[in-house]
Fold:
Amino acid sequence: MRQSRNHRSRGFYRSRNGVLLGVLRGIAEYFDFSVFWIRTAAVALLLLTGIWPVTGLYLLAALLMKPEPVVPIDNEQEREFYESYTHSRRNALRRIKHRFDGLERRLQRMEHIVTSPEFSWEDRFSRPR
Structure:
């Protein structure tokens, strides 16, 4: 018996376990169909319409569909980051850099306070709690 998973809430992605670019497996997982039947339908379309229309549609789908995330997405913030990363890696890296720059500034302020001459460790530890 197949394990039912709700992929529609996760998104429409190319599968990382597919045979050729993962398009058909991604479609099968999204609609919760058997990969065998999706591939059978694709081969039937290939035989009925010819090589070029189906191949063109397949390559177009491979270009438009985003690859499945390596790590499953657990919340909306992770989904937003993954969507921004796959849409524009430069913007996603800029967001990460901005976040770490803020952390770096906070660390520098803490280091400045702790290493300043006004900061006395003895006073800090001798205060009653």
Summary: The mean pLDDT is 80. The first strand starts at residue 13 and ends at 14. The radius of gyration is 26 Å.
